[in-house]
Amino acid sequence: MNTTVLSPVSVTNTTIVNNVSVTDGSVEQAVAMGMGMEITDKIHFVTSAIIGPIFICLGLVGNILSMLVWRRWKMRSSTGTYLIGQAIADMGLLVFFMLTDSILMFRHSIASSSTFGAFYAFVGYPLFFLFLLCSIWFTVGVTVDRYIQVCWINKAKEMCSEKRAWIGLSIITILCFLFNAPHFATYEPVPDVERKSSDAGLRFTEYGSSTGNINYELWVQCMMILEPVPWAIILTLNLLIIKRVTTTNQQMDIKRGSSGKKMARKSEAQLTRLLLTVTFTFLVLTAPRCIMQCFILFKSGDHVVFSKAFAIAKLGLVINSSINFFLYCLSGKRFRKELRSVVCSLYRGDSRVSTTISMCERTSSSAISRTKSTLSEKSGYSIDLLVK
């Protein structure tokens, strides 16, 4: 039974070497592979132990600040609720990346601990993927919420409430847990009496080493729920939002003056750029890992090269969970305004004053927000709250 520790987002060199049969007549190939593996180890160390933790720290701080902003009275909405859920999922992903990947680079000896083996098999490995699934599908939930508010204006007030958003988050979490259930049966700890002290503290279960697990990772995880399906939904809905805003602007051009037309076009262009950036940023950051994993699962091509690429591609998951805060700051004027209030209240230690101010602002703006019934107003609001 293979006792190699396999990180959720990377493939160990031992695993790759085991996938390539080296015959007696290919000693030079083995030597070359060994040299390639030394370079690969260095790349994995840089990405997991140096660059990764930097993004993790930034991402944790950014997600915490994002949650504080979206919890403010003025920012509370169905969209804000989805974003709070996404921030929690992203923080969970970042924490478990550190616990299951970065920690192995800092201390290789921990892999031989039976305690770590039990943690990795039953907690670290499956929960990492659970948070990853939740983060991706919460993004889909946010996109659906924005689509309803822009394209189904008459139904938006009824369908897009905080209560419904929490129900949506709960349903998505349950479905993600069910789809992720096989990861709880992929590894098992190795009892101390069955191994040497230097051997890994966990191993594949019978299911984990079967073709069923490979098919699950390839067709269910990579080819469906982790990449193509959510990305297709996000892209389609964003394109429909752009189309609706463009059509409405054209219909209202007759009633607008030249300055109004100019502002509408500027808002439309900003929305288009932002939505497409969001869509393709998600694809660029998450797709490379799935592509590399597919090649490795098929055991085709130069595995050393794929491992090097994997070391870089896995950073996409960390970056994807770390940049939401910065996208909010770039795209949302209201978010920046509320963020300044949060930072000032934290700096001064007077959260009650900040909350009171926020409630007053919410009261004064509630009448206006309830009368927003035109699509141009909805599209402008969507720009402020648009998310990754």
Can you walk me through this structure?
This protein has one domain: Rhopdopsin 7-helix transmembrane proteins (Up-down Bundle). 77% of the residues lie in helices and 2% in strands. It has helices at residues 13-19, 27-70, 78-106, 114-151, 153-159, 162-180, 211-225, 228-252, 258-298, 303-313, 315-320, 324-331, 333-348, 351-370, 375-385, and strands spanning 187-189, 202-204. Helix 2 (27-70) packs antiparallel against helix 3, helix 3 (78-106) runs parallel beside helix 6 (162-180) and helix 13 (333-348) runs antiparallel to helix 14. The chain is elongated. The two termini are 42 Å apart.
Protein topology:
Layout: H1 13-19, H2 27-70, H3 78-106, H4 114-151, H5 153-159, H6 162-180, E1 187-189, E2 202-204, H7 211-225, H8 228-252, H9 258-298, H10 303-313, H11 315-320, H12 324-331, H13 333-348, H14 351-370, H15 375-385
Antiparallel strand pairs: 1-2
